[in-house]
Write a structure and sequence with these properties.
about 350 residues; two-stranded antiparallel ribbon; alpha/beta; binds flavin mononucleotide
């Protein structure tokens, strides 16, 4: 058999994928108030159904996990019904779709939420940064409340319930967002986790939240091959810092390796040789993302660096990205000015070739 490339069919868990170009999870801030995906999202995702796999925008597993303006959740019956229309439209066009669970932890603002509960995090340490709110413009993010040891199980159960909801909504699987400075990464990282219970201190304790969340999601899904995870070792985004990311992430990936996950999704960041370091520790399907082009994506798959390449910004402005790659067609440049603005402009307005 010839060596696969970016456009070769692949497998993720039990799914056969048309190609190996995955659409990255991307927050687009077009949801309705109350965490309900909009009708526009049906068209947006259906336009991108030719991706080997679509990963949704970060989606809150519960009201407490939502922090940004106009972002969706997958908790209530109304939210699940809205997602079901989206997965139906993507499946009708032959696509496949995982829901990314994004619990923001301390990264959020009360004005963006549909609960009055305060933000929660491993420790009561305020993030250094501001966040957009539609009502009050840019605002500092308030200090979160530290989760009690007994409350951690409640948050874990929210991931399990969200998994059941996602499968009910027709998703092919779910992804735990353990990257970009959100709740799971707040447990992993030494500057945000100052706990002295079994969830803090040693690396074994700091990875416990992620391990328990994955276990709960796997049990709820009924099989590990419907569950993936995203990590971004040493990413400084959202005021996150770990004293020894190499130790943290090699320990985490070794612990996750035997679970039989659908995939491990790694975003290349500041840690040198991230893929070379982690790929040998993970025997399953490996998704690599972060700044890939057509040429570097082909090369990464041919060389065995990754099984799938995750493309973010290019999918915003090139809905039929795999088809354009196949023709080596010119690509439309992404427009960051419309990444998070309401309405169709810069969202559903890009035509396929
Ligand atoms: C507009 C935008 C929103 C994003 N939102 C998310 C998100 O919700 N969840 C996530 O894991 N990553 C998010 N990311 C990061 C992307 O998933 C991806 O890792 C990053 O864009 C690097 O890939 P690229 O260089 O191909 O764009 C976002 C990126 C962009 C551009």
């Amino acid at each position: 058999m010839s060596q696969p490339d970016l456009l070769s069919p692949g497998r993720i868990g039990g799914l056969r994928t048309a190609n190996r170009a995955v659409m990255a999870p991307m927050t687009r801030s077009r949801a309705h108030v109350g965490g309900i995906p909009s009708e526009l999202a049906i068209e947006y995702y259906a336009q991108r159904a030719s991706a080997g796999l679509i990963l949704t925008e970060g989606t809150a597993p519960s009201a407490g996990g939502l922090g940004y303006a106009r972002t969706p959740a997958i908790e209530t019956a109304e939210q699940v019904a809205a997602w079901k229309k989206i997965t139906g439209a993507v499946h009708a066009k032959g696509g496949a779709m995982f829901c990314q669970f994004m619990h923001v932890g301390r990264i959020g603002h009360p004005a963006n939420r549909y609960t009055d509960e305060p933000l929660v995090a491993p420790s009561a340490i305020q993030a250094d940064g501001q966040m957009w709110t539609d009502a009050q413009g840019m605002q500092p993010m308030p200090a979160p409340r530290a989760l009690e040891t007994s409350e951690v199980a409640t948050v874990i159960e929210e991931y399990a319930q969200a998994t059941r909801n996602a499968l009910k909504a027709g998703f092919d699987g779910v992804e735990l967002h353990s990257a970009s400075g959100y709740l799971p990464m707040q447990f992993l990282s030494s500057n945000t986790n100052r706990r002295t219970d079994r969830y803090g201190g040693s690396v074994t304790n700091r990875i416990r939240f992620v391990m328990e969340a994955l276990a709960a999601m796997i049990e709820a899904a009924g099989s590990a091959d419907k569950v993936g995870m995203k990590i971004s070792p040493a990413m400084p985004f959202n005021d996150i810092h770990d004293a020894d990311p190499e130790e943290t992430y090699t320990t985490l990936v070794r612990a996750v390796a035997p679970l039989g996950l659908a995939y491990l999704h790694v975003l290349r960041t500041a840690l040198p040789h991230t893929f070379d370091l982690l790929r040998p520790l993970f025997p399953g399907t490996f998704l690599a993302g972060g700044g890939f082009t057509r040429v570097s994506g082909h090369e990464a798959i041919r060389s065995g660096l990754a099984d799938f390449i995750v493309y973010g910004k290019l999918f915003t402005s090139n809905p039929d990205l795999p088809g354009r790659f196949a023709k080596d067609a010119e690509l439309v440049a992404p427009n960051p000015a419309t990444f998070y603005t309401p309405g169709p402009e810069g969202y559903t307005s890009y035509a396929p070739l």
